[in-house]
Design a protein that fits this description.
Distance between the termini: 50 Å
Shape: elongated
Largest sheet: 20 strands, antiparallel
Strand content: 25-35%
Radius of gyration: 28 Å
Length: 521
Amino acid sequence: MPSTPHHLPSRRSRLALAGAVVALAVPVAGCGGGSSSAGGKGDADPAAVVPATAAFYGEVTVRPTGDLKTNVESLARKVTGTADPGQQLVALLDKSLSRSGRSFKKDIDPWLGDKVGVAVTGLRGRHPDYVIVLDATDTGKGIATLKQSAKKVVERKYKGVTYLYNATQDQAAVAEKDTVSIGTETAIHAVIDVDKGADALADSVNLKKARADAGANALGFFYADPAGILNLAASSNPLLGSQASSLQGLLGSAKPLTATLTAQPDALRLQTTVTSAKAAKANGEAADTVASLPDDSVLALGLGTIGSRADQGLAQVQKLGGIFAGVLGQFTALTGLDLQRDVLSWMGKGGLFVRAKGVADIGGALVVDTSSEQKTTAFIASARRLISQFGGSQGLKLTPFSGTGAKGFSLRISQLPFPIIVATGGGKFVVAVGGSSVAQALKPTGKLGDAPQFKATATQLGARPVLYVDLKSLVGLAQLALGSDATFKKAEPYLTALTALAAGSDVSGSTVKTNLVVGVK
């Protein structure tokens, strides 16, 4: 039905500020309830006014309740180090709003509902059509919050609905179905279309299933439709548009990509879900590698089976022919080796780790299982010959390396304090920074999978990590290196609350749920 028009802010920054305030602020600051003087209940679904063709949609719960509210408040207290983080955040918001004579408590809290949604509805060149949808208990107060000395705002009508438009900024606003929508004019037209009967994203079977899988107690939910993204790109690029049907065929029945953000008392957790037997196998291999890396790693990454994955990619490149086939021929001419037969064939599971016992004691290594010491040794000899041939004029110094059960060569670069060592031994191929990293790569004194903090982070993750970052140790190094820096000092109280970041997947059959977690103490 037609909406009562209201004036918009005359500056883009004010509209953006309003959207940012409600999207980022209130999970902590606004856990209480707003008023409902205009009949809204504060539980409207933002996706109900978003067109079903939207390529991307995301929503945030800005008024959490129950366990979610408790977890959000607990996290906020730990990160901010204050007993009342909500009040601290409100003070920051009020500082931003003070220029316009507004405050969170007076101008936002009374009308804000439970959720805020953001959608991309189209693409014009490099500029997306977007809409920010605010669930509102009082749409009149919500629109009034945006009023700020608007001078170049005109009333327009679309399909009988009056909305406000700022030609200078190409921004519009309208109130529909207990929501306030702010965005580009084209996106606002799409919102009105939905109100007039066009399909809404909320009614999409894919979105309903994704929401059901995510569960009701999510802090944030994100949804991307591969087919919709392709359609947007094709509509703005004539060259891509001519290939759209072929690209759609490659996508086949690709399912929408979804991600869910949840809050635990001691961690934030992001989860995505895909169905792929290959992904399930690759995750297991990468997780095995990460757990076997040195227990003092501040960063550890599992790479899966490098040889077979690279071989599959190489097969795709070979199909392209032309210049790509020429590159492969040049590799053979330079090294005397066949890339597939003499290099990729022996490469098994691989991983990367970084160790940092101090600012002046940093090292790490790429370590790859090898099925053939003979082929690996030949590859290392070829690499040494090439570096000697082309790097001598650059001041690179090569010497033989032998020790800790490995043989190869050591490369000195004048700009680096540590040598780079390329070696093989004990069934592994290693490219390491520093001799001690070679020893740890071949036979670590302790394994990361047995480290207490790694175990605790894996429990928070709910999966076996394929990526692990020891934030606690990294912040400690930053304190040593940047302790007197004014900018770092401001961030330090928040950074010291972090423990670790990890990513990994929970595998059930061919279904892979990939999680990302940031732990706090």
